[in-house]
Amino acid sequence: MAGRRLVALALVLWAETADALSVAEPEPVLRLDAHRSMIVRAWMVRVVNEQVRQGPTPRWFHRDCAGLVRFAVGEALRPHDARWLAANGLSSRALPPDVELSDAERRALGGWVRDDGTRGPFVTAETLVRRNSRSIGREVNAAEPGDLLFFDQGDEQHLMVWMGGYVAYHTGMETPSDNGLRAVTLDALMRWKDTRWRPEPRNPNFVGVFRLAFLSR
Q1: Long-range contacts: 84-89, Cβ < 8 Å, 24+?
Q2: Hey, CA dihedral for 169, 173, 174, 178, is it positive or negative?
Q3: Residue of 87, 156, 167, 162 lying closest to 124 (CA atoms)
Q4: How many helices and strands (H and E) does the chain possess?
Q5: Which of 112, 84, 115 is nearest to 20 (CA)?
Q6: Are 52 and 170 in contact (CB under 8 A)?
Q7: How far is the CA of 207 from the CAs of 20, 23, 141, in angstroms?
Q8: Angle at the Cα of 189 from the Cα atoms of 41 and 161, rounded to 5 degrees
Q9: Which pLDDT score, from 0 to 100, does residue 94 have?
Q10: How far is residue 211 CA from its own chain's centroid?
Q11: DSSP element (H, E) containing 39
Q12: Which terminus of the chain has a lower count of CB atoms within 10 Å, N or C?
């Protein structure tokens, strides 16, 4: 009986979180067309993958799950000249083209929408999805590379970046022997011992899949 009450309470809490996020779904100042959205996605995945592969670049200052998303988006939208490539240990081979943006579009995409409606360089994971993303649902198969998986554990919220077949994220903690970055296949995540982190509809801690508001697809 007590177990059923706990499950019911968890479902109520999840519903309240999901409702709050969906009600606040943002109207973006700018939404890129499908082609440019695909370019941004490709750069986001590449930037995140390089952090996992090489370790976090010194230019990424605020290292946690939301910080990884903010950094990846910022790097995806910037020009990728020879200096940028050298700083990131990359060659120009097999890279996406730069996304073409006008000066006005770059200004519109500058910063993140904060709770007070202003824009700035920092938002939390919860504000990132509530004010800067839109819900795609709770089925992972609806996610496209660069989409976000959002978990609410009550006392903390967490984001993972969907990379296409696996997720990447930062734990929010670093030690001399652990940079905090993780890459986990979907199959492994679905069998995770701590079931709160399984991205499946029956998990009340999995709020769902979110797409950055400025991406059209």
Answers
A1: 87/57, 87/59, 88/50, 88/57, 89/50, 89/54
A2: negative
A3: 156
A4: 7, 8
A5: 115
A6: no
A7: 11, 14, 15
A8: 20
A9: 86
A10: 8
A11: helix 34-54
A12: N
What is the structure's pLDDT at 90?
85
Q: Give me the residue label for tokens 């020009």.
A: 79
Pair of tokens at residue 90: 């990359």
Token pair in block for residue 69: 């998303």
Domain ranges of the chain: 2-212
The pLDDT profile of the chain, 217 residues, written as one tens digit per residue, is: 444 443 344 444 444 455 555 444 555 679 999 999 999 999 999 999 999 999 999 889 999 999 999 999 999 999 999 999 998 888 888 899 999 999 999 999 999 999 999 999 999 999 999 999 999 999 999 999 999 999 999 989 999 999 999 999 999 999 999 999 999 999 999 999 999 999 999 999 999 999 999 999 7
For 197, the token pair is 């982190």
